[in-house]
Amino acid sequence: MGKTSSDPRTQRILATVDDIPIGQVATYGQVACEAGLPGRARLVGQVLAELPRGSCLPWHRVLSASGAISSRPGPGPAEQQKKLRAEGVRFNRSGRVNLKDCAWDPRPSR
To answer: How many angstroms separate the CA atoms of 110 and 95, rounded?
Structure first.
């Protein structure tokens, strides 16, 4: 797809991911909705896949709707799990995160 970082949709996705707090996770679909792009979960995945290695953006906090780390070639999945564990995110035996335990809620607290 080759979306550039100057693309407005890409900017909204990156800003949304940057808002996910330490120790919390969001799904690709949730990021898409929060970025004003409902139904564009795959676009979120594409944008995150194009991040340069060593990016400061907390890409590791974005998971599939089932709470699983998306499989992809290279060290990404193992690195993602390591980063999440370091933030206190727990995985079950099947390698999934219970989204009820640490899902990001971007709505302001009242």
So the answer is: 33
